[in-house]
């Protein structure tokens, strides 16, 4: 039992927990952050898995970390640096490839080899998507709209939002209605004819979801990829120097300078419940720490079913929590390499390697990968997003050696044999990934010094991501905005008094964005709850 | 017409964008690729290699070398130890700045001066009666700037005959790169960890090749002036002919600047005896300066709202800009001008270097900067922030 009384305790030092704590401290509140692991960051983590090689084990790129959060918390001063990804290369099995990079003319020429018509349309598509993305911007930078509210302030906000939308014109609204409901493939097919262009573009719509590129609702996620261009980042995707863990470290340093106390290796066993209200937390060692509010940086399942405990929940609420879909669908393979492997389609060293290599050669390929997952198996030929971060940030590997990050989908948490069978299938999964990638990089296997395979089961075990879901709950339309994490509770407050939520399971969702944390803090302060 | 620099054979083979400009009469690369972004991030993330041969360079030697430079420079460079470099400016008799550059003490009686403009005449004029020899080594010497966090690792791999780890910020040492004898100074124009490497013109290509070779495992990238311009604004470094003008070149007296106005007050020691411009600077100090150089951070929120009012997403030029923009106070009176401005991809801020009237230089002062959207001139709030905007620890770290 400790004597200090905190205004707020944040459970979990993931990036949203840190952002939330920093904003609260900035407003003068006394905040304690408790982290189970030995380091901060949660899934925003860099770890030296093999001597001399630092990996962004989980999240590996940054796209949506909001510029206003970067400025508010002065992150560049604390070591936050982002490098834009140069290009996206999509190799095809027959030795051809598609290269899309920052040079529009080079990109146009590359697409023209697939379809001269698509090459002309591509740029226009980007502009149109950026315009559509302006719908999302006010939505993701503010609390979710509450369509049922009678609060005059809320009605005013809804009115402003409505005006903002109407101001964009009818065509724009129709296009948005379409993108909200269509599948990524259908939506892209309205624009493009080349399947080899559509497939790698469509994958943006499925990352982290248990959906296929032909599943309705996947078109919407494409929009996120065009956001960067309109919010002052000027480039959608980037690599953080030192791995994503460096972002968490910068946030932690900023938070500490603002007065936040951060304790690592301090696992929270459960909430301290008094008269049905959260009064603090009980640590793994039995210590009790009290605070006015407890803010959970964990996913909704963990928050309610583990932190609070089902015995404190109304049965219908518990049911609602359980219905919130976690079902992780992806894994990660991280490789330490003794030399740069060659891409069969573009064997020369060049800037094209300083970006993403997308293994998504056709629509059917991706749909078949999904088929495996539907029936409880990992994809034999998965979709992969491959990066070689050491090319851009040489500090993460010894000179001349390289790190490779492979995001793999699908790897369903619920295997046919049960999730607990993942340890038995882990290496086979790793082999399938390396074998498939070797078709495009024939000398890959010669260079592997070390291989780390993270299945959704591992993500749950190590990082506490329920069912290995990288977004704290699927980013599908029925789990977004005022429905995230459940209807009526999208404003970071929970049905448990004095318990709040600040992480990716709340609006606007997952990815290294920081907004849930910032908006949770803003809401808490606005309601004078702390 | 500009002529090729000593590194031209290498840079022109790599400059796939054909984007060149004239820098002191030499062909200089703006950016090797169509966008300078990768080169900018190399400066900040790994290392960029930039040809800085067009800089003017002078060897001042002889028993009175220290005395001459102490008289000419506002900074007392006679106090420099051998193996140290000083950044300084120099003035005309009226205390108006002619140029700025570095002075390196290579031996007790040998200094190397770098300058943006030709300076031989001024060294000779100031040196009359001193026992010195001044050599214009501008064409004899070639130079490369190697800037960025991995620059030290690269030099460590490439260099023999010098202890890079012992070379402090603003230190200079003799060394050998491959077979090429060089001088290496821990100086630069990016505000980051970085070095400048000086060699004889004939050795230029061998030096380039050796650094590229050693740098490959450390992410070295050839970089051009567009990337440099963004980094130097982030670092708050001013540029002659852009942020201020040489007292020797302007038509209007009002265009001249003083060291105090340019933020060079820290260089000036009025107590150390006479140097060129001393009395005028002392008088200005008494009287107060008319202008003050400041940094500005433009409000992104307001800029966004401004574009939103036109139903447009915000957009800024991709490169640093030198078109001066008027700066206003609350009442709409023009109180200065922003002379360099850029979007900082690293800081996610729109930054400017500006000169403002006395009274508007305090940190946090809210001013207005002109911004044109859809052919309409509007104003956006810009807050005074003292440069550097970006100052990583590694720049100074041992």
Q: Unreliable segments of chain B (pLDDT under 50, ≥5 consecutive)?
A: none
The CATH architecture classification of the largest domain in chain B is 2-Layer Sandwich
Which strand order spans the largest sheet of chain B, edge to edge or round the barrel? 10-11-12-13-9-3-14
Largest sheet of chain A: 7 strands, mixed
Radius of gyration of chain B: 21 Å
Euclidean distance between termini CA atoms of chain A: 22 Å
Strand content of chain B: 25-35%
Helix content of chain B: 10-25%
In the CATH hierarchy, what is the architecture of the largest domain in chain A at level 2?
3-Layer(bba) Sandwich
Largest sheet of chain B: 7 strands, mixed
Query: Quaternary state, please?
Result: heterodimer
CATH secondary-structure class of the largest domain in chain A = Alpha Beta
Report helical residue fraction of chain A: 25-40%
Features:
heterodimer; A: 530 residues; alpha/beta; FAD/NAD(P)-binding domain; 3 domains; seven-stranded mixed beta sheet; 18 strands; globular; B: 398 residues; alpha+beta; Gyrase A, domain 2; Alpha-Beta Plaits; Elongation Factor Tu (Ef-tu), domain 3; six-stranded antiparallel beta barrel; 9 helices; 20 strands
């Amino acid at each position: 039992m400790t004597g200090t009384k905190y205004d707020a305790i944040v459970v979990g030092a993931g990036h949203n927990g840190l952002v939330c704590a920093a904003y609260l401290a900035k407003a003068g509140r006394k905040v304690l952050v408790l982290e189970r692991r030995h380091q901060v960051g949660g899934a925003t983590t860099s770890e030296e898995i093999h001597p001399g090689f630092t990996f962004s084990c989980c999240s590996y790129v940054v796209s949506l970390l909001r510029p206003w959060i970067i400025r508010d918390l002065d992150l560049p001063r604390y070591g936050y640096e982002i490098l834009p990804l140069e290009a996206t290369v999509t190799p095809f099995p027959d030795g051809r490839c598609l290269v899309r990079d920052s040079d529009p003319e080079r990109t146009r020429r590359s697409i023209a080899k697939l379809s001269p018509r698509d090459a002309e349309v591509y740029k226009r598509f980007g502009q149109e998507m950026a315009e559509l993305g302006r719908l999302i911007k006010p939505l993701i930078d503010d609390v979710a709209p509450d369509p049922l509210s009678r609060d005059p302030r809320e009605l005013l906000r809804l009115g402003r939002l409505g005006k903002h939308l109407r101001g964009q014109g009818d065509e724009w609204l129709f296009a948005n209605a379409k993108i909200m409901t269509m599948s990524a493939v259908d939506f892209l097919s309205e624009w493009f004819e080349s399947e080899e262009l559509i497939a790698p573009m469509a994958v943006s719509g499925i990352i982290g979801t248990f959906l296929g590129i032909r599943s309705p609702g996947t078109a919407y996620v494409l929009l996120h990829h065009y956001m960067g261009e309109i919010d002052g980042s000027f480039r959608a995707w980037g690599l953080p120097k030192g791995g994503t863990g460096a972002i968490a470290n910068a946030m932690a340093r900023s938070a500490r300078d603002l007065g936040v106390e951060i304790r690592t290796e301090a696992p929270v066993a459960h909430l301290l419940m008094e008269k049905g209200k959260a009064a603090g937390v009980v640590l793994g060692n039995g210590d009790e720490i009290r605070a006015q509010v407890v803010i959970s940086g964990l996913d909704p399942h963990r928050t309610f079913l583990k932190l609070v405990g089902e015995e404190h929940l109304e049965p219908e609420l518990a049911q609602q929590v359980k219905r919130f879909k976690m079902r992780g669908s992806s894994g990660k393979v991280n490789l330490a390499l003794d030399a740069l492997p060659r891409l069969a389609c573009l064997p020369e060293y060049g800037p094209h390697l300083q970006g993403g290599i997308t293994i998504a050669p056709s629509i059917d390929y991706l749909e078949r990968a999904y088929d495996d997952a539907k029936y409880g198996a990992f994809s034999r030929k998965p979709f992969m997003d491959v990066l070689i971060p050491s090319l851009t940030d040489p500090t993460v590997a010894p000179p001349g050696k390289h790190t490779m990050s492979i995001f793999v989908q699908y790897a369903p948490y619920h295997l046919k044999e049960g999730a607990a069978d993942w340890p038995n299938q882990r290496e086979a999964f790793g082999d399938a990934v390396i074998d498939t990638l070797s078709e495009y990089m024939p000398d890959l296997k010669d260079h592997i010094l070390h291989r780390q395979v993270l299945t959704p089961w591992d993500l749950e075990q190590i990082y506490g991501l329920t069912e290995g879901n990288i977004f704290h709950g699927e980013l599908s339309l029925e789990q977004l905005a005022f429905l995230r994490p459940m209807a009526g509770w999208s404003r970071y407050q929970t049905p448990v008094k004095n318990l709040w939520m600040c992480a990716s399971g709340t609006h606007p969702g997952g990815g290294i964005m920081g907004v849930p944390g910032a908006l949770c803090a803003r809401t808490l302060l606005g309601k004078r709850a702390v | 017409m500009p002529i090729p620099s000593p590194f031209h054979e290498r840079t022109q083979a790599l400059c796939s964008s054909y984007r060149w400009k004239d820098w002191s009469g030499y062909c200089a690369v703006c950016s090797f690729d169509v966008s300078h972004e990768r080169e900018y991030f190399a400066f900040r993330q790994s290392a960029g290699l930039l040809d800085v041969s067009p800089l003017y360079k002078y060897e001042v030697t002889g028993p009175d070398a220290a005395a001459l430079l102490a008289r000419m420079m506002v900074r007392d460079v006679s106090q420099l130890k051998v193996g140290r470099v000083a950044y300084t400016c120099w003035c005309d008799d009226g205390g108006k700045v002619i140029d700025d550059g570095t002075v390196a003490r290579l031996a007790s009686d040998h200094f190397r001066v770098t300058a943006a403009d030709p300076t031989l005449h001024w060294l000779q004029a100031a040196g009359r009666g001193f026992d010195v020899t001044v050599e214009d080594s501008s064409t004899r010497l070639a130079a490369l700037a190697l800037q960025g966090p991995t620059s030290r690792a690269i030099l460590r791999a490439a260099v023999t005959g010098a202890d890079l780890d012992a070379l402090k910020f603003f230190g200079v040492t003799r060394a050998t790169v491959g077979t090429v004898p060089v001088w290496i100074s821990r100086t630069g124009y990016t505000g980051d960890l970085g070095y400048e490497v000086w060699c004889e013109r004939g050795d230029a290509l061998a030096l380039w090749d050796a650094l590229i070779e050693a740098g490959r495992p450390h992410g070295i990238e050839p970089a051009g002036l567009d990337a440099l311009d963004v980094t130097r604004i982030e670092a708050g470094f001013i540029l002659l002919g852009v942020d201020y003008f040489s007292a020797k070149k302007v038509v209007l007296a009002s265009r001249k600047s003083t060291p105090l106005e340019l933020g060079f007050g820290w260089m000036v020691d009025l107590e150390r005896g006479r140097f060129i411009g001393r009395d005028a600077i002392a008088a200005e100090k008494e009287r107060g300066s008319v202008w003050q150089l400041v940094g500005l951070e433009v409000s992104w929120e307001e800029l966004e709202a401004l574009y939103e009012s036109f139903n447009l997403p915000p957009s800024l030029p991709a490169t640093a800009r030198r078109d001066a923009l008027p700066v206003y106070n609350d009442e709409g009176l023009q109180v200065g001008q922003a002379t360099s401005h850029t979007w900082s991809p690293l800081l996610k801020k729109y930054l400017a270097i500006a000169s403002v009237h006395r009274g508007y230089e305090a940190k946090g002062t809210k001013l207005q900067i002109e911004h044109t959207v859809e052919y309409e001139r509007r104003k956006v709030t810009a807050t005074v922030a003292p440069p550097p905007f970006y100052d990583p620890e590694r720049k100074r770290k041992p």
